[in-house]
Amino acid sequence: MRTRLKLFSSVLAAIMILTSFSLIVSADTTVYAEGSNSYFDWLLYEDGLLDVYCKPTQQTSWGSTYSNTSFYLATYVSEENLNRVSTVRFDISDLNSESWLSFYGGKCKATMVIFVGPENTSYKSISLNGFPEVVNGENIFFPKGASFKSLSFEGFGIKSFDFLKDISTYSLSVGSFDSLENAVIPEGAKTLSLYSCKNLKKLVLPDKIQRVELSRLPLLTEYNYPRYIKEFYWDIDSVKEITVPYYGRYFFNGDMLEKAELAYGRTNINERMFAYCTSLNNVIIPDTVTTIEYNAFAWCDNLKSVNLPDSITSIYERAFRGSGLTSVKIPSGVTKLEYGVFLDCEDLQSVYIPKSVTSIDCGAFTRCESLKTVNYGGTKADWEKIMIDDYWGNGYNGTLYDVFAGATINFSSSLKTGWVKNGNDWNYYDDSGRMVTGWFKIDGEWYLFDSKGAMLKDWQKSGSDWYYLGGNGVMRTGWQLVGFDWYYFGDSGVMRAGWQIVDGKWYYFGGNGIMRTGWQSIGGKWYYFTGGGAMVTGWNQLGGTWYYFESSGAMKTGWYQSGSTWYYFGDSGAMKTGWQIVGGKWYYFESSGAMKTGWLQIGSTWYYLDPSSGAMVTGTRTIGGKDYNFDSSGKCTNP
Q1: Most buried among 355, 472, 490, 548, by the most CB within 10 A?
Q2: Which alpha helices (H) appear in 379-494, and where do they start and end?
Q3: In which residue ranges of the chain is pLDDT below 50?
Q4: By the 8 A CB rule, do 507 and 498 touch?
């Protein structure tokens, strides 16, 4: 073995001369420990350098022969020795570059990992695992000119991906980087798997990446969708709301996502897009979507309702399987209800089926135990023309009425539509006869209905925002006087709070939405708002006292220069006049607040104020070629 390692050292020295970077060379050639096994030979030097020669030897197991591809340091190097390691140097010169190569550090103490091998080699796959003390990616070295089809890192202490910017790899996998907070993925990567980075907050993906898989990233809130993405998988555990771009295929799951909005221009909701998003309760679908693919909303337990635009013409099998829908309106462009489209929707109570539907699979509503009402957009004669399909090809002997397990079928002539008073509550039924819930626009006005269909009034919280619906249920926008207080609501009806600019003027609304007036302390600074709520700026006389407010609205204190004139404002912001002591010196301010300089006569007494600073002069001062004396009170004794 010693002979082999001596040869390795000679080859290594030659390679080091040829490479463009300097590798660590053991300064102390004293061997502390050594070993050999069927996978690799190793030498540990006194200074902490661990040299590992990876053998290409063919192994035989159960009658099969294979090459060495996995190298576990902890299996053959003791924990005591691994704790002494500061640098690991793997010689991979004789390994097959077309193999899937894995290197396991076993949580050794190395802060640097070096690979030695032939230059300009393309490797099929290299995986590194268990080097938690490597906190700087610049301490990972690969052979000069090496490229990788797949590169994988797990269990490192690295805080940045900067070291990858000059490395060529098609596929990148990163996991268990506990110190990683911000990740910028290199431009060359086409696929990424990123997982178990518990402190990752921001992820920047290159536009040309094609496939991304994300999971167990509990703090990730800043991210981007690559422009040319083909597939994006995300096990969401960090955000409650997302927007889905109009391009690419997306696969979300997890129990944290509550709201999803699909971007305008998107034409499909691809298969399994939201499958098992168990907290999803609000989905906004634009009228550019034409297709909902299979299992798109499967097992979305909290999805009680969804507005399906009439642009949708196809809903694939099992699209809403096991979802929490209580009612649904099938879009008017749909002609067929596929097998299992609402399979296992145990809470589904009513459904509207348009006249456009010409075939229904016998299993479309299987195990919809709560379904009691079917509203149909055509006549009874139209209903009885609908074909019954059988996905399994066994033939169905029942009738269309049997498909709905005895639910009441209401035809177009008997449908209830418009406003209906039910006890003390008002309900609204759309053109399909479906009682609406949630937000709904009627005759140009927005209304909000609770989960039972009752119209809501006055103050209501929807999501994390507050709205005011008045006594008639109409959502208010703009300025509104509620009780004795003014509020402002944006075009979307959301109550505004904090700083807001309205018609070119700044206003401030408290956390409760009430418009502030008069003096207000905000963020450690004082502001003044008129009776109408507008923030004041510039000079303002309030209660007989002059104040100056900066362009930001903040009240000025201390010195203020306007043109060539100086003013002084006390801690209360009040403009000072007359004699004032500032910083241990006396100054005189005229009734206008302007600081006086030069000669000043008060009664029969003369004073002199320094022309450059305005400070009152005492002692002897030469003015205009004559010496004048000023006592401690500033009075000139020889005017």
Answers
A1: 548
A2: 380-383, 400-403
A3: 1-27
A4: no
Please give the Cα distance from 481 to 479 (Å, whole number): 7
pLDDT, residue 37, reads 92
Structural tokens at position 457:
């009034």
User: What local confidence, expressed as pLDDT, does residue 546 receive?
Assistant: 97
* C-beta neighbour count of 547 within 10 angstroms: 22
Rounded-to-integer distance, Cα 485 and Cα 516, Å: 9
The answer to whether the beta carbons of residues 290 and 311 sit under 8 Å apart is yes
Q: Is 298 exposed, middle or buried (0-12, 13-18, 19+ CB in 10 A)?
A: buried
Q: Report the 3 state secondary structure along 134-154.
A: CCCHHHEECCCCCEEEEEEEE
Nearest to 297 by CA among 310, 287, 282, 286: 282
Instruction: Please list, in sequence order, all residues whose beta carbon lies within 8 angstroms of the beta carbon of residue 154, skipping any fewer than 6 positions away.
Output: 127, 128, 129, 130, 173, 174, 175, 176
Phi, psi of 112 (to 5 degrees): -145, 140
What span, in angstroms and rounded, lies between the C-alpha atoms of 552 and 279? Answer: 43
Give the chain's count of helices (H) and strands (E): 5, 54
Nearest by Cα to 42 from 11, 95, 85: 85
In the prediction, which pLDDT does 59 show? 59
Amino acid identity for residue 382 in this structure = D
For residue 248, give the nearest of 236, 234, 266 by alpha carbon: 266
CA-CA distance, 357 to 335, in Å (whole number)?
A: 4
d(CA 400, CA 393): 17
What is the 3 state secondary structure string of 583-620?
CCEEEEECCCCCECCEEEEECCEEEEECCCCCCECCEE
- Residue 462, Cβ density class (10 Å: 0-12 exposed, 13-18 middle, ≥19 buried): middle
Please give the Cα distance from 79 to 89 (Å, whole number): 18
Report residue 558: phi and psi, to 5°.
75, -155
Written as six digits, the tokens of 402 are 């049997």
Q: What is the pTM of this model?
A: 0.67
Within 8 A by CB and 6+ apart from 236, the residues are: 242, 252, 253, 254, 256, 257, 277
Q: Which residues are bridge partners to 126 per DSSP?
A: 101, 151
CB 272 within 8 A of CB 298: yes
The Cα–Cα gap between 636 and 454 comes to 86
The set of residues, in sequence order, having a beta carbon less than 8 Å from that of 284 and lying 6+ positions away, is 259, 260, 261, 262, 307
DSSP string across 261-286: EEPTT--EE-TTSSTTBTT--EEE--
